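User: My advisor, Dr. K., asked me to get a structural model of this assembly before our group meeting. I'm new to this, so sorry if the format is off. These are the inputs:
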Amino acid sequence: MTAHILGIETSCDETAAAVIKDGRWILSNVVATQMDLHAQYGGVFPEIASRQHILSIMPVIRQAMGEAQVTWDDLDAVAVVYGPGLPGSLLVGVNVAKGLALGRDLPLVGINHIEAHILTNWLAINGEPPPIEFPLVCLIVSGGHSELVLMRSFGQYERLGGTIDDAAGEAFDKVGRLLGLPYPGGPAIEQTARDGNPAAFSLPRAWLRGTYDFSFSGLKTAVLHVVQKYEAQPPKPRPGGTRRKLSMPAALVRPLPVANLAASFQAAVVDVLAEKTRQAASEFEVRCVLLAGGVAANQTLCRSVRERLDVPVYCPPPDLCTDNATGVGVAGYHALRGGRVSDWDLDVLPGLRLA
Ligand code: KG4
Ligand code: ZN
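Assistant: The format is fine. Below is the predicted structure of the whole assembly, which you can bring to the meeting.
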């Protein structure tokens, strides 16, 4: 089946559209990031995100179709992420997709955002579609999700485990803030960690043995305690008095070893993610392993998973790990092939799960 799918993604703070041919070939991939708008708040500001999606969505779609050199007549379906994500952001993409599909008499296909991340792995990069074989284990690690999933074929997902508190990307973002690094914390920590020693601080790993679950909140608190030890505490205000500014003698204020702390934190996260992925791959005797989601852009993570496994490990290029619409086009292709087309009452599901 030959098919050109327009993929649309507005689940968080990227307005994205892509045209994908046959679930493999990227004809265009346009992402309008809102990162600078949200950086001043240290995280995504939902109302600002949805307003910006409204402004960007049509120019982004027009650009994607222009770069792909396709007209509406060339398209076979409009695929759009309907969850999980921010409700107001998802609403923009879903309603625009409905309007376009209805107006152009095209099938509408609702796509799970997590599935889109996973299926990005099937795209041909440098002209070669990767020879992915089932069964496989996929580690999905993003700002909102951290899950290990067993996949036996397209559309068949068995959840092996996931985070019981923070998602891996959330932990990167929160620790980035503690270390005074710019938002988002993930890429900033990876960059800073390059100059650091991953063994400088012995930080805890929550193994949660006997499960494929993760927990990162203890690790985050451990980093906070290190930061507090290094920081000069401001004096407490005296009862009834005003806060008096004391200047700490320079010799008493130890500078925070940001690079070492970033490297040690990253090593702790990667250790747990990579080891649990190895265990799952071994237990289920899979033929390959996939990484997906924003944190999969982390090269230390990819390297560490590859080092521990003797089956092929696939990971999209970093710019396709973070939110974009290419995987939406791949997922739309497989849904269309399987006859899974959405009705016109498709609604957003902010808490949608994969399995
Ligand atoms: O998949 P994504 O773009 O959005 C969600 O679906 O959440 O993931 C964003 C997350 C952020 O938490 C960001 O800090 C993290 O991915 N991230 C990284 C890296 N690049 C992005 N984390 C670690 N290392 C990176 N290089
Ligand atoms: Zn995502």
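One thing worth pointing out at the meeting: The CA atoms of residues 163 and 214 lie 4 Å apart.

User: Perfect, thanks a lot.
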